Amino acid sequence: MGEVGVDAQQPRQEIRFCRAPDGVRIAYAVHGSGPPMVVDSCWLSHLQYDWQSPVWRHYLAEWGRSNTVIRFDERGHGLSDRDVTDHSLEARLGDLEAVVADAGYERFALQAMAQGGPVAIAYATRHPERVSRLVFYGSYACGVSDDPEDEQLNDTFDQLIKVGWARPDSAFRRVFTSMMIPRATEEQHVWLDELQRVSTSAETARASRRQRRLADSSALLAGLEVPTLVLHSRGDRMNPFEEARRLTAGIAGARLVALESDNHIVLEDEPAWQVYRAELRDFLEADVPAPREPAPERPQTLEQLSPREVEILRLAAVGMDNDDIAQTLTLSVRTVERHLSNVYAKLDLHGKSARTAAVARLLTRA
Fold first, then answer.
1. Average pLDDT, the chain
2. Which fold has domain 2-145+216-287?
């Protein structure tokens, strides 16, 4: 892992890596402080390149002021493994699950950016106990379209990527840039032109776009029972505003905020940016615990653990992973994970080092 900083005024991010269920290595970054917020990745990302972005930088700084932010490069993109062909909804959901498990947070707000919508919906459906708040930004529930004109347009985009994605001349990539941030400066346009080239290969860009267009989580919307905020630019040319209306109508109690912008990525000097900041901050403040009197201190000892928790911890101490423990004790892997989470909570241990610290306490007592 490593740390990357921009300047003294910027927060710092820590780059980490984990493995998806199919073995693909996924890069993720953590920065900021406060209640955790996981950002479900959009189509184009590069954890290090984004960190210095004149298009994205204000988002990263804003999020980190009030939250511990966990964001990641999807498979085939950025610092994650590049030689990947499976960009299906299930594979992308596995990436998100792997990042969350490795980061070690039990409950968090989840913000879906752009094409991350179907994945976030599927995750919140599969793990409702983990998601405290759900935010969609410029996103949608279904990438499938039955409009022949949409298919023709996507075929044209596919050819543009094939012919021009890797060229030094950014003329072909500027088509996508102009759709994402039509009201940007030339500096911002040039940066997004370059992000396309450095974030992934032309082959992966084409494959991932094709498989994203098959992603459909719309049937899951009615089953979501989580506070939900939908933020969307009214003039968005990448994902039309109608997608935000469908999301909001499909989730009970969801609230829609229209951002008065033509940019898919709202820029820092737009009035819409201040609306986004205020709405997101107010929405996420519900996850900030109210001040309370400190509880009397009590020793965090192994005596607090149940016999089953001690048994699982002993197996972890001899090097077994969760799958091995589950097989040995005839339990599900999720049950093992739940027992270990209880161990960490009782011993006041957090983050990636919690397992190591818990085992060390067991061995010290022995």
1. 89
2. Rossmann fold (3.40.50)
